[in-house]
Amino acid sequence: MATTSKTARAPRPAYRCSECGWQTGKWVGRCGECQAWGSIAETAAPQGRTSAAPVTTPAVPIGQVSVEASAFRSCGVAELDRVLGGGLVPGAAILLAGDPGVGKSTLLLEVAARTAGTGGARARTLYVTGEESASQVRLRADRTNGVHEELFLAAETDLGAVLTHIEEVRPSLLVVDSVQTIAAAGVDGVPGGVTQVKEVAAALVRVAKTRNITTVLVGHVTKDGSIAGPRVLEHLVDVVLHFEGDRNSRFRMVRAVKNRFGPVDEVGCFDLSAEGITAVADPTGLFVEHHHGRVAGTCVAVTMEGRRPLLAEVQALVTPSALERPRRTTSGLDSSRIAMVLAVLQQHVGIRLASHDVFASTVGGARLSDPASDLPVAIALASATFVSPPPAGVVAMGEIGLAGELRRVRDLPQRLAEAARLGFQMAVVPAPPGSAQGARPARADRTVEGMRVVEVPDVVGALRVLHLVARTKHALEVVDVPRSEER
């Protein structure tokens, strides 16, 4: 009897994005998940089905799982402990990314030195550098007083050699500077490429989990500020930190973007100098200028950086322009928000600045992205236009809408408490919803921790409280700034 043979159907090829891991059944030029170009590549088809395998540890009820092995341990830097949610967690994988020269290596060398300085086997630290020689790192350690017996240093660029150092030293804290400089043998691609970074990071995270070693990886960033390498790198680690700072300023900030062990809205403040990096517990004084008297064109804003209120001074300068297209220059502020505030001042207040140059900046290199800084910007612009300084000891906060209304801001009690602690006597804040419709007076005063708090419904009311606009016959007096004689 003739037998019929069935032709086995070939497995359908699969394609995967090397950046985010998105899969598709056919090749496309652009990833449908992360929108990256040229990142789709064919993956090997699975050969058969995966059978059951022995387990490493049996499953137990979650209430019987011990948490003592994963307790927080201080890294010696209070501001970094604050960002991490309490300190370093054994077995955690942390990715620290930032611009070149911002101070990533200096901060991690300080953390490694302070961890090693606590003494004992649990404090043993291994610092692996792939960007510098061991002697160069030693010079920085001498300058920052970071030489300790339990701090081991190795200069390696091969993943196998790094794993050998981990076997020999058996550290409790591992710092790899940086993950883009380590290469894995037998893996295609150059160091820093997508395939290499993925393999190196996966191997280091696997060692961190199996040996309960806190691992900190330094990551490079691209031109637009995103972390270089595959997007899956951020998924592999437990914590992603961004190190930010201006090259012209000593102030640095560490911001948590992802944190499996704590909040993601915390920031840490540091001061980078030739002697090293130090934590700044109260950075408000860096962003507020101490004037001898009242100065026109200034206003102090209260913003929130994570869960920490910070006071920053906004300065504005308005001058007649001889150009057909007047300048609009900003520093530390969003230029689109400044354009919106100028449009609101012209439409609802009557301040016309179409023929004037406008300069707006912050003090100390602070970057204000909080919408609550809209009202301080408007007050500074109006004060600079009329050359009339606002009252002394005034802070303002509030988001301005296109209709000129002031919208409520989050964490208002914390902002007011911080302003009162620093000695400010008056705060201008948005009125609660409904006050503009007659439910409450257009202006209400109250006292919070010895500070007078004035609630106003719109930007016109805020400027009127500070005596920057006049009111005649229940209508706003439109002020037209005279044009320059040259025009």
TrEMBL record:
ATP binds at G98, D99, P100, G101, V102, G103, K104, S105. PROSITE patterns: RECA_2 (PS50162). Residues 69-221 form the RecA family profile domain. Residues 357-487 are annotated as: Lon-protease-like. Coiled coil: none annotated. The keyword Hydrolase applies. A motif (RadA KNRFG motif) lies at residues 258-262. SMART domains: AAA. Keywords: ATP-binding, DNA damage, DNA repair, DNA-binding, Hydrolase, Metal-binding, Nucleotide-binding, Stress response, Zinc, Zinc-finger. The keyword Cytoplasm does not apply. Belongs to the RecA family. RadA subfamily. The middle region has homology to RecA with ATPase motifs including the RadA KNRFG motif, while the C-terminus is homologous to Lon protease. Plays a role in repairing double-strand DNA breaks, probably involving stabilizing or processing branched DNA or blocked replication forks. This is DNA repair protein RadA. The gene is radA.
